[in-house]
Amino acid sequence: MVSDEALRGAGLRVTQPRVAVLDAVAAHPHADTDSIIVAAREHLPALSHQAVYDSLRTLTKSGLIRRIKPSGSVARYETRIGDNHHHVVCRSCGAIADVDCAHGAAPCLTPSNHHGFVVDEAEVIYWGTCPACTSTHPQPERNGHV
Amino acid sequence: MVSDEALRGAGLRVTQPRVAVLDAVAAHPHADTDSIIVAAREHLPALSHQAVYDSLRTLTKSGLIRRIKPSGSVARYETRIGDNHHHVVCRSCGAIADVDCAHGAAPCLTPSNHHGFVVDEAEVIYWGTCPACTSTHPQPERNGHV
DNA sequence: ACCCGTTCTTGAATGATTCAAGAAAAGAAC
DNA sequence: GTTCTTTTCTTGAATCATTCAAGAACGGGT
């Protein structure tokens, strides 16, 4: 029901697929599309994957959910929006955790030289190894970043 | 020739494909794989795409080049490494420009709450609109980020 | 010059995401 | 409540960057 209002508030039609997808994303933070499809089908078995892709895009464009897509990972989604938090991603298992913005307010970063670009967002991804993978220490593959 | 030494210095075998790829990346900063294939084939017409993929991965893992992969874009590469700079990406045309790190030293950011992750890198991507697209102002598609 | 292990070529496979066309449903009007 | 119009969903196929696999070719140390 809270999803209904969120959709209506964003000026979107309240359809069963959208409600199911929004609920699924809220229940599974950082879930990938496939997990969302599975989760949403628990409430709506006949849901097509295309409807999920469409819904995710629409919800993202409306700002109800946020898309995260670290290199080497498929798209992931979350409902925690508007607080400009960032993410830590594990290089070996792909686990994602939220990290509060070190500076508090959005945008938390301002490029020193923006080459004439109009910047509206600073996306930060911290790369490392999660606690579980640190203990079993498999060799992670780097991106070449510093 | 400088590529030969770079490869040797990284403990890699100096093969024609690797030299051609490294030169191509150096000559075309932020180029995608396909552009690199085309550029490398100017010096080595028989080069296979697989060799380019292999070379790019090896070079990246050895730290000779850096892989960038903004959401919605294919992988891109650059030879400017070790200075921890970041990137501005245009939402409408995908153009990429370098941005010096606002804080100077690497890692330039430290997450306030790292959830037990061992963080070795902070990757920053600024999203916005490039000068060319700003003047023709097509409507860019946001990611839902702040 | 030879040999071994790495790397390259060729060609097919993978898989997340998108495209396309018609059917169904949402919301507004009657 | 019914009808209409537009949006959205279902079905099914297509795309395309990237990876996998097997055998040939090459790099570099002896």
Description:
Two copies of one chain form a homodimer. The first copy, chain A, is an alpha+beta fold. Chain A folds into two domains: 2-68, Orthogonal Bundle (Arc Repressor Mutant, subunit A); 84-136, 2-Layer Sandwich (Dna Ligase, domain 1). Helices cover 34% and strands 20% of the residues of chain A. Chain A has five helices and six strands. Chain A has helices spanning 2-9, 16-27, 33-41, 49-62, 131-136; strands at residues 31-32, 66-68, 76-78, 86-90, 96-99, 118-129. The longest helix of chain A has 14 residues, at 49-62. The first copy, chain A, is globular, with a radius of gyration of 17 Å. The termini of chain A are far apart. At the A-B interface, α4, β4, β5 and β6 of A face β4, β5 and β6 of B. β6 (118-129) of chain A pairs antiparallel with β6 of chain B. Chain A binds a DNA duplex (30 and 30 nucleotides) through residues 13-18, 32-34, 46-51, 53-55, 58, 74-75.
Features:
Arc Repressor Mutant, subunit A; 146 residues; 2 domains; DNA-binding; 3-stranded antiparallel beta sheet; 5 helices; Dna Ligase, domain 1; alpha+beta
